[in-house]
Structures are given as C-alpha cells and as structure tokens.
Amino acid sequence: MPISDHEEADTRMCLHVLHALSKGAQNVLVSTVDTDVIVILVGIFHRLREATVSHTIICEEVLFTT
Q1: Domain segments of the chain: what residues?
Q2: Which contacts of 46-54 are long-range, i.e. CB under 8 A and separated by 24 or more positions?
Q3: Over the stretch 6-16, which tens digit does the pLDDT of each residue have?
C-alpha cells in the first residue's frame, strides 16, 4: 500500500479497503461505531467497485451498532 498522510482513522480504514480490493480481496468487513466511516464508504462506493479486479462489488449488509 502506498504511503499515506491520512491521520484520521476513518479515512485510513477506507484506504485499506481500497487496497485490499485492488489486490483481489473477495470479502472485506469493516467494523465500526463511527458514522463517519459508513458515510465515507457509501460516498466512495463507486471507487471501491473500480478498484476490484472484476469491477463488481456487492454490499450485502451494513450493520451499525452503538
């Protein structure tokens, strides 16, 4: 994964998801209690799809608990 200057954990988590998908990951699970992470992931969903090898991504569920 390229070096990143992202200091916030929420944006770093998204970078890790992008990296995993670009390397061929079939499944990614993000566990968070931070609404910012969910909002950011929804906002970059199209980029996540582009990062996958097959250009296919399915969001099976979003679980959010406090």
Answers
A1: 1-66
A2: 47/18, 48/17, 48/18, 48/21, 51/18, 51/21, 51/22, 52/21, 52/22, 53/22, 53/24
A3: 667 788 888 88
